[in-house]
Amino acid sequence: MKTLLLLLFLLTCTTGTSSPPSSPLDLSLFPDTLTAPYGTRLFLTSHPNYLNLVWCCDIPPDADKAQFELNSGVNVWYDGEMEEQRTAVNNTQVSSRYKPRQAADASTWYLGQYNTTLILIFNQTLHYNISCNGESHPGKFEVLYKHWDKLSSSGDVWSLVSVGSLGLYNTTKLTLRKIKTLSENVKNVLWTVPGGIVTDRTVADNQTESEAENVSESDSLTRWRAWLLLVQHVTCCIPLAASPSELDLLPHTADNQLQSHFRWFMELPFVEQDEQVLWYSFNHRNLHVVSVCTYCDLCDDSAQFKWLEEDLKAASSTNETHWIMVMGHDPIYESDQSLHPEVQSINRIQLDKLFAKYDVDFAVWSHERWYERTKPMKNYKVSDERISNLLDSVNGTIHYTCGTGGIPLQDYNMEKYNHTARFLTSYYGPCAFTRIKDNQYETMFVRTDDADIVSFEDHITITKDIPQRPKFKIESHFSKFMKVFGMVIFIGVGIMLLITILVKAVQKHDPSFITNKIRNIKYRKEGTTLGGSTENLEIQEVEMDAEDIPSKNGDKVLLLDEIEDPDLQLSSAAQMYGVMM
Questions:
Q1: Contact 348/380 with Cβ under 8 angstroms?
Q2: Is residue 121 one of the residues assigned to a domain?
Q3: What is the Cβ-side half-sphere exposure of residue 388, based on CA atoms within 13 angstroms?
Q4: In terms of domains, do 532 and 427 share one?
Q5: Residue 330 to residues 211, 257, 355, 399, 535: CA-CA distances in angstroms?
Q6: Same structural domain, 568 and 494
Q7: Quick check: is 457 in a domain?
Q8: Does one domain contain both 322 and 192?
């Protein structure tokens, strides 16, 4: 609720006019070469208290590539750290790589990229002093992002903003400014880009569409450098996670798309540089975020499809994440006028069946230059027809198309399709997903009308039932000892009881197995001189070995049923054995 009130304070809901027209930026305004580091950007790592920190630097053809120096003990520090205590960067983890490029004068330059691990201190200004090309370059930026580990409070709130189809336009700058405003006022903002980063299909008056897509290596690198310079005031403060579009992978073909500038400039979270993939996933609090490549193979036996199914299966079966979001470039639910109907159709079949099987909550796309939110979809059909700003226990995946980053918008009516819940074609800006509680998210479209107004549309609240986390009680060492001791005593008593029962059973069936003594043998001696009178019967109770039982004619062994005297009381042992001697 606090987050919502803060957003309502920051974002004024207005009835302003549509966003200003989009015009491309003049790339000549971006310098061909820079002697200072540029393109500073942050990426997530697998450790909750670290971020990847990346710089670029142009290296002239006659310079030593190793001239870029970054020494953590001296050159990178946070506010308030003394020189002998500067520990912002682990110096041993600095890595570098280089890429040749052609400058305007046709001499060969190199583009250096330097990657290190930043120890994260939230809301602190990071200072650096880097030697590049023999010159010292001081700089600073504020880290506006706070990561967390599993021990952090469940009350943590955060926002994920997502927007694609950015390009290099004046409206791109406006969208970036609003993302920066959000990151300065709402804690823990993460930016995701569902493709459409630097290149678009806008066709000039003197070009055909195929010519517009014929991007050279040099042109592609020029656009990427310009884009890094354009966005660095945002990417230096909050982490970036991106999916590729087909055009982001140009000028490379499907056979070598891993060598594209996208894979070179975009650090994939939790993916090593030498891993040959264009897809990844990560957990962000209780949200599992998955990035797919909609232009890569998604057939059943493809590497990406197998990885995706295993990833979604694991995410849906754990109690650590309660929500699942998938992002990619091409929407799987859109109009029949898709620019890539064959790709869209294949993706729709393959992805939608996994979304339904593993209960994906959100899917975020761009490609089409408009904002759209669908009704919950499942198995190619609308699974929830409710039209409401409060959705609970949603049965299906809500799809967001947010291709409103800066490339000229498309004028098309999607509202005629039954699956569309909200549709906007006049505004630029990102989608925002704000976690309020573990079981509640709020989503909205943040509208960028002009430089001074930030407003929002399509604000909805989504809740779901989630399993309660188990409560753990820490036991003392004495408690653990007594528990083990009690179990030992219990087991010992049980064993003794079993032994006693076994002995009794053996004694009943074969007393001589236990001892060769026959206890309490009763026998009767009949003296012929006594005349056989029962009154004169002499009852004797003796104990003797079995082999010592008299066998003379005057002795007689009687069975119990032969004793007619009701007053004759047998000993308990004789009764147990069932015989009388």
A1: yes
A2: no
A3: 12
A4: no
A5: 22, 17, 15, 11, 115
A6: no
A7: yes
A8: yes
Neighbours of 174 (CB within 10 A): 20
Phi, psi of 223 (to 5 degrees): -70, -40
More confident residue, 298 or 451: 298
Question: What radius of gyration do the chain's Cα atoms show?
Answer: 41
- Look up the domain containing 359 and give its range: 152-204+228-463
- CB distance 398 to 374 below 8 Å: yes
The pLDDT score that the predictor gives to residue 86 is: 67
Residue 190: closest CA among 224, 162, 225 = 162
Contact by Cβ (8 Å): 193, 424: no
Work out the number of other CB atoms within 10 angstroms of the CB of residue 276. Answer: 8
Alpha-carbon distances of 246 from 211, 330, 331, 371, 410, rounded to whole Å:
15, 9, 13, 20, 19
Give the pLDDT of residue 146: 72
Q: Which of 170-179, 307-316, 322-331, 463-472 has the lowest mean pLDDT?
A: 463-472
pLDDT tops 90 at residue 326 = yes
377 and 302, same domain (yes or no) = yes
* C-beta separation of 403 from 427 below 8 A: no
Strand partners, 15: none
CATH number of the domain within which 322 lies? 3.60.21.10
Q: What is the mean pLDDT of residues 72-101?
A: 69
Q: What three-state secondary structure class fits 472? A: coil
- Check whether residue 499 and residue 516 sit in a common domain: no
Evaluate whether residue 492 is within a structural domain.
Answer: yes
> The tokens 């993706």 sit on which residue?
347
Are 182 and 316 found together in one domain?
Answer: yes
Count of domains in the chain?
3
Question: Per mean pLDDT, which range of 42-51, 63-72, 275-284, 500-509 is the poorest?
Answer: 63-72
> 372: closest CA among 408, 399, 341?
399
Mean pLDDT of 193-203: 75
Lowest mean pLDDT among 397-406, 458-467, 556-565: 556-565
Q: Are 450 and 347 in the same domain? A: yes
Neighbours of 35 (CB within 10 A): 16
Same domain, residue pair 502 and 559: no
Return all residues near 131 (Cβ < 8 A) that are at least 6 apart. Answer: 67, 68, 69, 75, 137
Greater pLDDT, 267 or 101 = 267
Residues forming beta bridges with residue 135, ordered by sequence position: 132
pTM, rounded to two decimals: 0.75
- Residue that finishes a domain, picked among 442, 463, 484: 463
Q: Each residue of 367-420: pLDDT tens digit?
A: 888 999 989 988 878 888 888 888 887 888 999 999 999 999 987 765 556 788
Query: Is residue 541 over pLDDT 50?
Result: no
Longest dimension (CA), the chain: 149
For the stretch 251-306, pLDDT in tens is 766 566 667 888 888 888 877 766 778 899 998 878 899 999 988 888 899 999 99
Q: Encode 553-581: b = buried (16+ Cβ within 10 Å), e = exposed.
A: eeeeeeeeeeeeeeeeebeeebeebeebb
The rounded distance, in Å, linking the Cα atoms of 427 and 449 is 7
